[in-house]
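Possible regression after last week's pipeline update?

I re-ran a chain I had predicted before the update to compare outputs. Posting the input and the new output here so someone can diff against the archived version. Not blocking, just want to make sure nothing changed silently.
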Amino acid sequence: MAQPAGTEAVLPELVVQAQRAVAARQDILTRFGAREVQIDRETIEALPQGGNAPLNQVLLQTPGVVQDSFGDIHVRGEHRNLQYRLNGVVLPEGLSGFGQVLDARSLRSVAVLTGALPAQFGFRTNAVIDLETRSGALDPGGSIGVYGGSRGTIQPHAGWAGVVQGWDVFATGSFFRSDQGIENPTGSRTALNDQTQQTRGLAYAARQLDETTRLSVIAGTSLNRFRIPNTPGLQPEFTAFGQSTFDSTDLRARQWERNWYGVAAVQKSLGDLDLQLAGFTRYSSIHYVPSVVGEMLFNGVASDVLRASLTTGAQADAAWRASATHTLRAGFLASRESSRTHSQTTVLPLDANGDALDDPFTLVDRSSRVGWLYGAYVQDEWRISESLTLNLGLRADQMVQYVVAGQLSPRANLVWRPAPGTSFHAGYARTFTPPQQELVTTPTLQQFENTTNAPFSLQNDPVRPERAHRFDIGASQRLGEHLTLGVDAYYKDVQDLLDYGQFGKALIFTPFNYRQGRVYGVEFSGNWRSERWLLYSNLALSRSAGRDIRSAQYLFEPEELDHISRKYVRTDHDQLITGSAGAVWRATEGTRLSATMLYGNGLRRGFANSEKLSPYATFNLGLSQDFDLPDGGRWTARLDVVNLFDERYQLRDGSGIGVGAPQFGTRRGVFAGLSRAF
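New output (post-update):
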């Protein structure tokens, strides 16, 4: 790769410095005692769709990750409660809709950490998605290409990584356009009014300030626009604006999603002490714009909803190798979030008999909040012997949001390695999980009485933080040079179990609590690695249940609320059996052939989630080929088939707790791409 003038002599030293920085960061942010599944860049590029695949599709190939509608994923039987980290720094939560914030092609690796996490991980503790960005020193080179195919999909992209006057630089950007932005509400191959346009970009720069100090900066954005797909043949239930007929295929609801984020971090090494101090910020917003006339005729309600959130904060972490047997770690995190909600809801009044009158009017509701999160931890990694290590830690967390609460949380992890290739681990973690402030609303319920948007009741107790006891035990065994098998079991006993649902027609989630909850399961995994082959398979059994709705009660029908108060019910995202498998064959001359499979036995549906949807299995194929042309460029061509057997399967049917609309999985699609490396 050609480098700018004056950089050749410093490149090797920058490579060494970058490697040291990554190693120091990994030592500060220990994974000790957690179950870790890592996918490197080479594997991401080899799987079907490669770096063009949405990040959530990559994560679905790891154990215990369940597919849901709107691009959501569930890890170990929970809704959300995921923590994303970029180069070791927490990426603040934002308002997430249908679109992805990060491109898989911008990452060196993706690691999923689950289990009883060490004390340094707070707030979102069900799983940590640890993302390492590409680096100019470690991944030099650039590429430009285009990818597209079925349903009008087109995705041009470009990226470059290198060294510029001592700066380690990486930048990437992509544009995505498709006629299917979110899941089809019908089982047809194409959806009506489902177009999307999405723009994503990320830039990374790092510089060695002196021999022991390194500065790094990350900035990124995602700007997504969606049309909400239609279901043909619906019959209006109301009369509004003098109309009583409307073709449901003419509905034109839209949703805009915007995200900007930035991270600046300084790493410092002082002998046996490594430190990282970082600042972060994120702005996000979701704006749902209804098709007013049509939604009034079909639903009696049309809501224009805007939610926005701005979060800023600081994070510090340190690791001190105090002796040959003790490594002490400590740190803190503090963040400030300003969130606001603005809704304009058009409704119809009700007469004395409860019938709607054709006299639409609009009600305006606004709310805002400034909230704070504080967390600090200390932990000791004690190497008791060559084969036995104990990690003890303590967290202190505090939230000042719609409610004020805090907790001291002990953590303990034990790892035993009795022989090379054999590992056992067991852990306990007390966890404290605040609700996502940007999703919490405090509507003025009284103003909607005697309208078509009247709540089921006026009871709206505040959403509380979730408090849980987590237990995890597992083992990993390497058999020979190539095969590794693993098993992991977990149990979570919960007070104020947090869940999220889509209530109403605006496609935005709202949090609520079950008074009690329990989540438990077991995961099996295996992988075979050789020079040319990667084979893996995962099987997860999981159960998630809650009892007694304790907050946002106005969202629930009285019969369902009464039923849930008396017995445990399955959460809507509960799926008993989830499986994934894949194979990658790397032939000579740059040929890669891959296949993946995903199985689910069905999410919950029906009254109080008492039933489930039908099982499904989908298969994907991918083929990519590298070749050289006389111009000296390295080209890659790829061909992918998604849902090879055109499985017609339903993720949601519009029933269940907090489920607002039906969604079907994507039907078969054929995609091709061509890119050039330079």
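Follow-up from reviewer: compared with the archived run. The longest helix spans residues 11-28. Marking as no regression found.
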